[in-house]
Amino acid sequence: MSTKIAILILLFISFFSHTENTPKPNFIIIYLDDMGYSDVGIYKDERLKTPNIDLLSNSGQIWTNFYASSAVCTPSRAGLLTGRLPVRNGLYGNTIGVFFPGSGTGIPYSELTFPEVLNENGYTTGIFGKWHLGDKKKFWPTRHGFDEWVGIPYSNDMDWKVGDIDLEYLFRNPSLALEKYGEIAPKIVEKIRNPNIDDWNVPLHKSIKHSNNSFSDETLERPADQHTITKKFTEESLKFIEKSAENNKSFFLFLSHSMPHVPLFRSDGFVDSTKLGLYADVLAEIDWSVGEVLEKIKNIGIDENTYVIFTSDNGPWLLYPNNAGSAKPLRDGKGTTFEGGMRVMTIFKGPNIKTGIVKDIGSQLDFFTTILTLADIEAPFNPEDSYDLSKTLKYLEPSPRQIIPYFVGSELRAFRYKNHKIHFITQGAYNLPPERMEHEIPILFNLTTDIGEEEELLNLDTINEIKRQVDLFQKDLRIKNSLLDIQYIDLN
To answer: Quick one: average pLDDT of 293-320?
Structure first.
């Protein structure tokens, strides 16, 4: 054997040996609930002190045109995990917008989540925090790709009771719901504004999936101690990171905070810590949590092989303005298809990600394909709505995404194509203005020059161009029946 051939063989063996020993990257998504667009990032109110999130921003890549897949919790989370618009799999509601306690439905077994794909390819997966895709055990995260979960099954403002009235009663008695809720609404608002742990019977669950596909499920607290819940989710996340590293396992961590969704709580060390009120204190504790995660991956030497994504499930809940963040300069907030409802400041940091500000369009629907591409894993199914953003992250190539559809339930109310957006239907959220209005000629905005959607344009050529894109989008769209609208029907 010639020396040249021997060297080539050794290089070949060395290359594949190195490839096999190179650990796959880790992924961490830090997910907030109802965070305001300008609570972090380039539009942040400078009075809000978030040094750790600022560090993440300065050392990462900020996307200012990034979107959740819905303006409310359940469909937004469904879109993130499956890479599919919620109308494709029924995880939306026309009459009931999200899952509530005692739901008989949840995320279908047929839906593939990217944590499942990671798990099947050797990753250990953990979620610590809010789930909101079905509260029966068969719908828990450990049945949909996660090895372990410590968290709450739905929003932290659920499971209340005023006299004999609770949410389940209202949904099971729709003819009485409006009258009964009108009677108790002031008491609910008072509970939100002056929160007490015992006003919400929200459970804190723990679930472990074992190697033989059995499960250990338990309820740790009921009601969950929401004063310490941000700290709890953080500590569980740190233990998960450490354990994964000790076992030489690549991991996916979903730190899904239940804050700053109302009712707002913070631990003792953050009470009046900002002198700016309860919301700012809550955000300061979340910032502490981000710092703990960043410090942990740095201290154990895996920060250079770990991608961190920071984002929110939708915009701020403006029904409680004193207990909410700000979407400014965007219009409106949670529950609407104006930009404040679905556009969320999003930060990426990780191996070879270029720092700076990206103004291209992206969506949480794209996490599925992008994360699997970064992990060099081929999915058994490519979601219709998920684009690969990896080349934008690494090389600042143009984003392949050019459209954003804005749904409320199964109703397509607005559509963005490149820099322009048209509204077919406009409406405020939760009894806030403006009233619902259908527009025979869609309202047109240029989101590059008018981020606040204030100056209506009349350019029929642009409107017709976007409507052609809508037709292309809807050509292959098959809308499934809502699973949320039937969540209280007896499905046994």
So the answer is: 96
